[in-house]
Amino acid sequence: MASLKELKGRINSVKSTQKITKAKQMVAAAKLRRAQAAAEAARPYAERLSGVMASLAGKVSGDSAPKLLAGTGSDKRHLLVVVNTDKGLCGGLNSNIVKAAKQKAASLIAEGKDVKFYLVGKKGRAPIKRDYAERIEKHFDTSAVRNVGFEEAEAIADDLIERFEKGEFDVAHLVYPVFKSALAQDPTVDQLIPVPSPEGAGDSGDAVVEYEPGEEEILEELLPRYVKTQLFGSLLEREASEQGASMTAMDNATRNAGDLINKLTIQYNRSRQAAITTELIEIIAGAEAL
C-alpha cells in the first residue's frame, strides 16, 4: 500500500496534469472557432468551382481535353496524398486517417496496382512507414508553418502536377479529414488527379453559354486552380479537425484526471484515518501498560 506521502505526491502530480490539459482544451476551443470558420467559408467556393468545371467538362472531350482532365489513358500507378496533422494530442484523428489510407492502398494493391504515398504532415509518417516504407514517395513538411494556407496548397499542387506531367503516376487520391463537429472528423478519400468529371457534366439545362476564349483554353487555366483549391480545402479541414479533436481529447483527459484525483483523495483519506486509528490504539495500549 502506498504511503500517505506517496499518495499526496500523486494527487499533486495529477492536479498539475489536469491544469495543463484544461489549458490545452481552452486553447484548442479558441483556435477551433477560427479554423472552423475558415473551413466552412472555403466550401462554397469549391462547390461553385465544381459547377463551372461541370459546365466546361461537358463541352470538351477526346483529344481536345487537357491531360489533367483526360488522364494518361492508364490507371496502373496510383499516388495516395495523405494529409495528417503535425501535432499530436488529438485523439484518434491521425490513426483514422492512416487507417483509411492503408485500406485504400490495400484495395489498390489487391487489384494489381502500383501504389505510392505522398505524405503531408508529420503524424502519419511513422505508422505508414511501418507497413509501406518502400512505397513512400515524398514527405511534404508543414510543421514549420505557423498558419498553413494557400501558399502551401499551391506548392503541393505544383509538385503533384509536375510529377503527373512527367508520367510518374496515373491517378492521385487525396486522403484527408472532413470536419463535421468537435466530436466527428470523417476521413475521406477523393480522386484528385486526373480531375474527375463533376456530376452533372454536360447538363447545362436550357442555358446556352458561350466561352471566350474556348473551353479548352479555360480548362487549361482552371484545372490547376481546381487541384490547388481541393488541396487548400483539405488543409483547412485538417486544421479544423485537429482543433476539434484536440479539444475533445483534452476535455476527456481533464475529466479522467478529475476522476483519478477523487479516487486518490478517497484512498488518501482512508489511509490517513487508518494511520490515526493505529496511532490511537498504540497510545491506548501504552497507557494500559503503565
How much strand content do the residues show? Answer: 5-15%
- Low-confidence parts, pLDDT < 50 over ≥5 residues? 200-208
Biggest beta sheet attributes: 5 strands, mixed
The H-and-E topology, N to C, reads as: HHEHEHEHEEH
* Total number of beta strands: 5
* Strand line-up of the largest beta sheet: 3-2-1-4-5
Radius of gyration: 28 Å
- The span between the termini is 33 Å
- What percent of residues adopt helix (DSSP H or I)? 55-70%
Query: How would you sum up the global shape?
Result: elongated
Task: Supply the key terms.
alpha/beta; single chain; five-stranded mixed sheet; 290 residues
What does this protein look like?
About 3% of the residues have low confidence. The protein is 60% helix and 13% strand. Helix 1 packs antiparallel against helix 6. By secondary structure, it is an alpha/beta fold. A five-stranded mixed sheet has the order 3-2-1-4-5, with helices on both faces.
Give a quick summary of the entry.
The protein has 290 residues and is an alpha/beta fold. Helices cover 60% and strands 13% of the residues.
